[in-house]
Design brief:
- With about 425 residues, the chain is mainly alpha-helical.
- The chain has one domain.
- The protein is about 85% helix and about 0% strand.
- It is built from 14 helices and no strands.
- Helix 2 packs antiparallel against helix 8.
- It is found in: Cell membrane.
- InterPro entries: Poly_Biosynth_Transport (IPR050833), Polysacc_synth (IPR002797), WzxE (IPR044550).
- Pfam families: Polysacc_synt.
């Protein structure tokens, strides 16, 4: 299956997830205004953190090694038994931690202790979230894109129904609660779909501690955890900084533009993740890697440029459609954000080479360095340019990250 066909199936799945996300944003904007959208971003950052930590951050590792071992039954069985053990142990630890600190998290993130019970529900849900992440990763490793898309589409439809029902009853609280329940509901779709796959075997649900495989997963998960944990943490710090400087209403404008970017880029980043991670992991010849990377740029960069240009030209309509008239002040923020989006996709393609080839130390150091540089740029640029400075910081940081990844790719390919 090539990137075009993969993009078609992932596009359908992404559209369903995008619809679910836009319904949530629209309802929150309606019920709670810009300040509510800002708090929605905070809660979604927490969900992203816990979702990754729930499975020990090994989803990408499972994809990589399933792609490598799928023709080696013995090693595949060892890998999956170790992965399931790892994921469920990590979910129990993180769930307990979230339960213990639920009140502190509610006050820190949402500035309201009344959301403590919501954090507790999210903590209990970690076990189910870890299991569905494991199932989706195995399916992705086998490059069964159609089955993966089916699970995500049906799961998104269930989530939309949950959001509409709970938000009408509980408003902002209900919308946030629906986000949690929607993730767990995906398990009811994913598990039967996986059972019916031609590659499913009962021993894939066995758990066992395997020192060798656990060490491999732990090293790989360090990269995944770094890339998955730093952005939500950094965004929390950025929101708190912007809120202190300009108020939560201004944070809502920044969050709105960021969410629009996340929405349309989801089509591309999902295709990159589902296709290129297992593909690059299972490809070892220099010329084959070069061809895959060239094809990525030939297909993806023109698409992201066109999409970014359309969003910019239609920014007034997009803002009105997705939010409401109160968000018109967000329109001047689109320009630098969309430039940064193009640079982001260009850098992501190359960064997956580090992930697929397990360049652990280099990947972790680079993620930390560029997270710190983004924060520094936000503080400097907002001091000079105001709220739009956060968007300038986003674009400049991804330009630097792209240049770094070009250097890494050239060095790796030259050494093969």
């Amino acid at each position: 299956m090539n990137i075009v066909r993969t993009g078609f199936y992932t596009g359908i799945a992404t559209a369903s997830r995008l619809l679910a996300g836009l319904v949530v944003i629209k309802l929150v904007a309606w019920f709670a205004g810009p300040a509510g959208v800002g708090k929605l971003g905070q809660f979604m950052s927490l969900m992203s953190l816990l979702a990754v930590l729930a499975g020990g951050g090994i989803s990408a590792g499972i994809v990589k090694y399933v792609a490598e071992y799928r023709n080696d039954a013995r090693r595949l069985s060892r890998l999956l038994a170790a992965a399931l053990w790892y994921a469920l142990c990590a979910s129990c630890v993180m769930g307990c931690a979230a339960l213990i600190f639920s009140r502190q998290l509610a006050v820190w993130l949402l500035d309201d202790p009344r959301y403590e019970n919501l954090i507790r529900i999210l903590a209990v849900a970690q076990l189910g979230i870890a299991l569905i992440n494991y199932i989706l990763s195995v399916i992705n490793g086998f490059m069964d894109v159609r089955r993966l898309a089916l699970i995500q589409v049906v799961g998104s439809l269930l989530s939309v129904a949950m959001v509409i029902g709970l938000s009408r009853w509980l408003h902002l609280y209900g919308a946030l609660l629906a986000l949690v329940i929607g993730q767990v509901l995906t398990l009811a779709v994913g598990l039967p779909a996986w059972w019916r796959s031609p590659y499913f075997q009962r021993n894939m649900l066995h758990m066992r501690f395997d020192p060798e495989m656990t060490t491999r997963l732990a090293a790989f998960s360090l990269m995944t955890l770094t890339s998955a944990l730093l952005p939500p943490l950094v965004n929390i710090v950025v929101r708190n900084h912007l809120a202190a400087q300009y108020g939560w209403e201004q944070v809502g404008y920044w969050q709105a533009v960021s969410k629009v970017s996340d929405a349309y880029l989801l089509f591309l980043t999902t295709a990159i993740n589902i296709y290129y991670l297992p593909k690059l992991a299972s490809t070892h010849e220099r010329q084959s890697l070069v061809i895959e990377l060239r094809n990525a740029y030939r297909h993806l960069i023109p698409v992201v440029i066109v999409l970014a240009a359309l969003v910019y030209l239609l920014r007034d309509m997009v803002t009105q459609l997705l939010f409401n008239a109160n968000f018109s002040s967000a329109n001047p923020l689109y320009g630098p954000q969309l430039v940064g989006d193009v640079l982001k996709v260009a850098s992501f393609v190359l960064s997956y080479l580090m992930l697929a080839k397990a360049m652990t130390r280099l990947f972790v150091v680079s993620e930390c360095v560029f997270a710190v540089s983004y924060l520094a740029l936000v503080y400097v640029f907002t001091a000079y340019f105001g709220l739009v400075g956060a968007m300038y910081a986003f674009a400049v940081n991804y330009l630097l990250y792209l240049l770094f990844n070009i250097g890494v790719a050239r060095r790796y390919l030259g050494a093969i």
